[in-house]
Write a structure and sequence with these properties.
Number of helices: 12
CATH class of the largest domain: Alpha Beta
Shape: extended
Oligomer: single chain
Bound molecules: adenosine-5'-triphosphate
Largest sheet: 6 strands, mixed
CATH topology of the largest domain: Rossmann fold
Distance between the termini: 99 Å
Order of helices and strands: HEEEEEHEHHEHEHEHHEEHHHH
Strand order of the largest sheet: 6-8-9-10-7-11
Number of strands: 11
Structural class: alpha/beta
CATH architecture of the largest domain: 3-Layer(aba) Sandwich
Number of domains: 4
CATH superfamily of the largest domain: P-loop containing nucleotide triphosphate hydrolases
Helix content: 40-55%
Strand content: 15-25%
């Protein structure tokens, strides 16, 4: 090859290399450009969000024949509004949350369903399926509940005639799993009252004023559903005595308690709403809630004694096929310290033992094995609670009180 030709080829090679280099640069710059365009789009949409006027939340009340919609806006008044063409008409139903434009004249969006904390934290049972026969022992507690809850709900005229006022609220206290909820449900059923239950710890909400609002709504609902029993479990979560209400969380809990007291004070003893509260920690309750006219009847629901345990075994084995050798009295004797819930767990476990062994009847051995299992779990749990309890005490002395 002549030197001219070689030179020519070398120059071509250099040129090719240079072109490849430029091409890869172009590719790199193109992807950079794409990235920057994406960033611009993102910031543009953020600017749009910042500049767009806030929308007004509303709830659809009804739909008029001419297609316009009556809504209750969160700003207060009921409004008659139009619907923007892009909004799916089939989604506009009474109860639906929608967004109105800033002037409040048109529905511009349908909002996703969200759960109202008030609905979420309340359980309503029109007719609980627990009767007094489903409760083992606790005869004295049942008698007292009949006197202070069932009788005034069913025969208020009796109290008017005699001229006495029954208590508005009853506080059930005692260790967990001994039948407080069961008692409340049973008395609601026997009095033909709607059972509305809320849990104290669920009233402690993230947002200021929300706990108090839930309390207000629950009582409003109870009045509508009267006769009704409002059952507040774990009332200590909102009614614990506080020496210092420093943090905003504690002030919020205090506000919820104030609303509860206002509600209780607001109705008369013979109104058809009764409140039953339950706690495992009566020792820490704020005395304000125990004042006359509030929870002025305290009923202790203690750990079942021997007779109580026997009765609870009887209740839970009612529908069970028992072998001849099953001695419920002996089972009650060897389960000292067990709660009602633990006895129920023993009975269920014994049933499982029989199923595992392919038997149709449950025998004493099944029960003894179940007692061993449940009671040993109990002692492990109690040990842990002891450790936790002492830790809690350490914290509470150094931090809260
Ligand atoms: P907590 O404080 O944990 O809410 P509690 O005292 O309200 O407890 P319950 O929820 O009433 O306890 O009881 C839990 C379960 O234990 C009941 O569903 C029931 O099966 C059983 N149980 C407890 N006590 C009795 C009882 N006296 N008779 C029959 N079953 C009982």
């Amino acid at each position: 090859m002549s030197s001219d030709v070689r030179k020519y080829y070398e120059a071509r090679k250099d040129e090719d290399d240079y072109i490849r280099l430029l091409e890869s640069k172009i590719k790199y710059l193109e992807t950079e450009k794409e990235k920057l365009l994406m960033k611009i789009r993102y910031y543009k949409s953020e600017i749009e969000k910042l500049l767009s006027p806030p929308l007004i939340e509303a709830v659809v009340l009804s739909i008029l024949d001419d297609g316009r919609v009556v809504v209750k806006s969160s700003t207060g008044p009921n409004l008659i509004v139009n619907v923007l063409g892009t909004v799916p008409r089939d989604k506009i139903r009474p109860g639906q949350h929608v967004a109105l434009n800033q002037r409040g004249s048109t529905i511009v969006d349908v909002l996703p369903e969200y759960e109202d904390p008030y609905v979420k934290s309340m359980e309503v049972i029109e007719r609980p399926n627990v009767t007094f026969d489903d409760i083992g022992g606790l005869k004295e507690q049942i008698r007292e509940l009949i006197e202070v809850v069932e009788l005034p709900l069913k025969n208020p005229e009796l109290f008017e005639e005699i001229g006495i006022e029954p208590p508005k609220g009853v506080l059930l206290y005692g260790p967990p799993g001994c039948g407080k909820t069961l008692l409340a449900k049973a008395v609601a059923r026997e009095s033909g009252a709607t059972f509305i239950s809320i849990v104290g710890s669920e009233l402690v909400q993230k947002f200021i004023g929300e706990g108090a609002r839930i309390v207000r709504e629950v009582f409003k609902y109870a009045r509508k559903k009267a006769p009704a029993i409002v059952f507040i479990d774990e009332i200590d979560a909102i009614a614990a005595r506080r020496l210092d209400i420093g943090t905003s969380g504690e002030r919020e809990v205090q506000r919820t308690l104030m609303q509860l007291l206002a509600e209780i004070d607001g109705f008369k003893p013979l109104d058809k709403v009764k409140i039953i509260a339950a706690t495992n920690r009566i020792d820490i309750l704020d005395p304000a809630i125990l004042r006359p006219g509030r929870f002025d009847r305290l009923i202790e629901v203690p750990l079942p004694d021997l007779k109580g345990r026997y009765e609870i075994f009887k209740v839970h084995t009612r529908r069970m096929k028992l072998a001849e050798d099953v001695d419920l009295y002996e089972l009650a004797r060897i389960t000292e310290g067990a709660t009602g819930a633990e006895i129920k767990a023993i009975v269920t476990e014994a049933g499982y033992n029989a199923i595992r062994n392919n038997r149709r009847k449950v025998n004493m051995n099944d029960f003894l094995e179940a007692v061993r299992k449940v009671m040993s779990k109990k002692s492990i749990r109690e040990k842990n609670i002891d450790i936790l309890g002492s830790k809690e005490k350490e914290y509470s002395t150094s931090y809260m009180f």
